[in-house]
Structure formats: structure tokens, C-alpha cells
């Protein structure tokens, strides 16, 4: 039985240490409150599980000097090139340790094994969320419909209901776009959408406000021509965060590329109720798409009736606001546009 206690003690320590590594990544690297809270909660859950095990026997069984494993390392153990590799390796150690704890605790405390199994599945979710935070830029390239969510147009339903309907209808990313609300209200909206997008695995971009994006752990920020420079905004955001910029000409698009944007918004393509802007031609959109080495998001007055015109010139992604938010059936409105976009 002493051997069983040694195994449990070693893996409980390993799991706690792994969770601390993940928590620190979420807190200090990603500035992500959701991941930080998850890791902290799981560490607390692990401590509670230990209370159902014979803690004295676990500690007495510990034998560092006689542990042959302390002298064994794999060739890749000391090789980490970035914080992502450190954090993902910790997640792997966590799930492996939890599996060992689950199996060996069946011998002395079967009820603990059941709880550890649930915690192990939670750890897989934690790993998935952590991984997704590091690949948001790559994920944005696969977005075809970008829903711009604004309470100004959500007359029929709540902001959250509209956002959920847009996601269900096929939106791959949401942007919270609020121009005239107090900061505390904007922050509450952003936090609510971060909770929803975490749940659904959807990208969340905050319009204009890198500070709000940083606080809620959003996937990125969208900047206008008069907002903070891209480089300054990036200093406020976590590594890997997306920065998009609105552009209206080839010159502005080229400048956004040079300054380090991850995507550009281009338009307005059609008359729009959201703002008063000059229209750009579909031929210029085509030239931009063929020239700019970034995802190009067409924006402005896009509906299910005119989106086909943009697809014809090579458009891969469109941003839509009022057509979704103001519709009585935002899910159907989203789907009507998404189904015309390329897969």
C-alpha cells in the first residue's frame, strides 16, 4: 500500500504544480480572467479531494532520495521556445497526473476516483481554451461572417440573445461595437460577451478599446483610423491577440499591413445605417483582396441580397451589424448571409 501512497503523493504534487504554471500563464501572459479563474478553481478542487485521502500516509510515503525518477529526463524536457510550449506542456502533465490519481485512488478511496475523473475532463477543456488563446490569429483566417453587435440596434432582444443567435446562425467572430455608453456599461457588456464566446468557442473582438479588451481577456481589438496606433494598442493586449483596422483606401490598407495589423476592415461597400461614410467600389475591394496579404473583411450595408456581389470579386469574409441585430430573427438573418459565403 505504501507504493500506492507514493504514486498518489507524487501525482498530486505534479498536478498542483501544473495548475500553477497554467494559472500564471493565464494571469501574467494572456491576461485572461477566465483561464486564470479556471486554473485557480481546479487547484482548490484538488485540495478538497486531498481531504478525502489519508494525508499523513501520503507525506510519510514520500521518498525523494530513493526516487529513481528524479534522475531521468527526456531529451525534450528542458526545451521550451516560448510561453505557449510551457503552458501546453503543463496541461499535458496535468491530465496525465489526474489519470494516474484517478486509477490508483480506486484502491483506497473509490469515491475520490469519481471526482478526479470529472476534474480530468475539466482539465481537457482548460487545455482547449488555453490552446485557442494562442492561435486566435490563425482562427480568424477561417472566419466568414463577422457579426458586429451593438445594443443600439438590439430593440427586440438582449445583447446576449442577439449574440447567441448570431453565433448559432453561423457567425465565426463577434465584435462588440458601442460608441456612446459609459465605460462601466461597456465593460459589463464585454464581460458578458466574453462569457458567451468562451462557452461557444467564438472569437471576441472589442471595437476601439484595447483597455476593455485587455480587462475581459478578449481575443483582440478593432481600431479605426483615429484610434490608438496598432503598436501602442498591442502593448496593452496579451501575446497573440488580434488587431484589426478599418481602412477605406489602398494607401490605408498598405499602412495597416506595415504597422502590423492582423486583418483589415474595408468599406463601406453599400449604404449603411450605422454610420455616414463614403462608399468604395467593388473593383477596389477586389484589388485590395488580391494585394493585401491579410484577411480582408468587407463592411458596410451588407445584406443577404447584396453579399453575393462581394463573393463574386473574391471576398472571403463580411462584417454585418444592423442586418443581424435589428432583425426579428437574428439567427435566420445571420444564416441567410453565411450560407452565401465560401466554406
How is this structure best summarized?
With 343 residues, the chain is α/β, with parallel strands linked by helices.
Keywords, separated by commas or semicolons:
elongated; Ferritin; 343 residues; alpha/beta; 2 domains; 55% helix; 8 strands; eight-stranded parallel β-barrel; TIM Barrel; 15 helices
Q: What are the SSEs and their pairings?
A:
Layout: H1 2-29, H2 33-50, H3 55-60, H4 83-108, H5 110-134, H6 136-140, E1 145-149, H7 159-169, E2 173-176, H8 183-200, E3 203-207, H9 210-216, E4 220-223, H10 230-236, E5 242-247, H11 250-259, E6 263-267, H12 282-291, E7 296-299, H13 307-312, E8 317-320, H14 322-325, H15 330-338
Parallel strand pairs: 1-2, 1-8, 2-3, 3-4, 4-5, 5-6, 6-7, 7-8
CATH architecture of the largest domain: Alpha-Beta Barrel
**Name of the CATH first level of the largest domain:** Alpha Beta
Strand content: 5-15%
Structural class: alpha/beta
Radius of gyration: 24 Å
Strand runs, count:
8
In CATH, the topology of the largest domain is named: TIM Barrel
How many separate domains?
Answer: 2
The secondary-structure element order is HHHHHHEHEHEHEHEHEHEHEHH
Give, in spatial order, the strands making up the sheet with the most strands. Answer: 1-2-3-4-5-6-7-8
Q: Which range best describes the helical content: under 10%, 10-25%, 25-40%, 40-55%, 55-70% or over 70%? A: 55-70%
> Which regions contain 5 or more consecutive residues with pLDDT less than 50?
none
Mean pLDDT comes to 91
N-to-C CA distance: 57 Å
Biggest β-sheet description: 8 strands, parallel, barrel
Count of helix runs: 15
Q: How would you name the CATH homologous superfamily of the largest domain?
A: Aldolase class I
Shape designation = elongated
Amino acid at each position: 500500500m505504501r507504493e500506492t501512497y507514493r504514486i498518489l503523493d507524487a501525482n498530486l504534487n505534479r498536478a498542483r504544480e501544473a495548475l500553477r504554471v497554467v494559472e500564471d500563464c493565464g494571469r501574467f501572459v494572456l491576461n485572461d480572467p477566465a483561464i486564470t479563474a479556471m486554473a485557480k478553481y481546479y487547484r482548490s478542487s484538488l485540495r478538497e479531494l486531498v481531504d478525502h485521502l489519508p494525508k499523513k500516509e501520503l507525506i510519510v510515503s514520500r521518498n525523494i532520495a530513493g526516487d529513481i525518477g528524479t534522475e531521468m529526463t527526456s531529451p525534450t524536457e528542458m526545451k521550451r521556445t516560448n510561453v505557449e510550449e510551457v503552458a501546453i506542456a503543463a496541461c499535458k502533465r496535468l491530465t496525465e497526473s489526474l489519470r494516474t490519481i484517478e486509477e490508483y485512488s480506486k484502491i483506497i478511496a473509490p469515491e475520490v476516483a469519481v471526482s478526479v475523473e470529472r476534474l480530468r475532463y475539466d482539465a481537457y477543456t482548460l487545455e482547449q481554451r488555453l490552446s485557442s488563446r494562442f492561435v486566435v490569429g490563425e482562427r480568424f483566417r477561417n472566419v466568414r461572417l463577422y457579426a458586429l453587435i451593438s445594443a443600439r440596434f438590439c430593440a427586440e432582444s438582449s445583447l446576449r440573445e442577439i449574440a447567441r443567435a448570431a453565433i448559432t446562425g453561423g457567425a465565426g467572430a463577434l465584435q462588440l461595437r458601442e460608441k456612446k455608453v459609459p465605460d462601466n456599461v461597456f465593460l459589463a457588456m464585454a464581460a458578458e460577451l466574453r462569457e458567451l464566446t468562451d462557452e461557444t468557442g467564438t472569437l471576441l473582438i472589442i471595437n476601439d478599446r484595447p483597455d476593455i479588451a485587455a480587462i475581459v481577456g478578449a481575443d483582440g481589438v478593432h481600431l479605426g483610423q483615429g484610434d490608438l496606433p496598432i503598436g501602442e494598442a498591442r502593448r496593452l493586449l496579451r501575446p497573440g491577440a488580434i488587431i484589426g483596422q478599418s481602412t477605406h483606401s489602398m494607401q490605408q490598407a498598405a499602412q495597416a499591413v506595415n504597422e502590423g495589423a492582423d486583418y483589415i476592415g474595408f468599406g463601406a461597400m453599400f449604404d449603411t445605417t450605422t454610420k455616414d461614410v463614403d462608399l468604395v467600389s467593388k473593383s477596389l475591394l477586389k484589388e485590395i483582396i488580391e494585394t493585401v496579404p491579410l484577411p480582408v473583411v468587407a463592411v458596410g450595408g451588407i445584406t443577404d441580397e447584396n453579399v453575393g456581389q462581394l463573393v463574386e470579386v473574391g471576398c472571403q469574409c463580411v462584417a454585418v451589424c444592423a442586418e443581424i441585430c435589428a432583425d426579428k430573427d437574428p439567427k435566420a438573418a445571420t444564416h441567410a448571409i453565411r450560407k452565401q459565403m465560401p466554406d
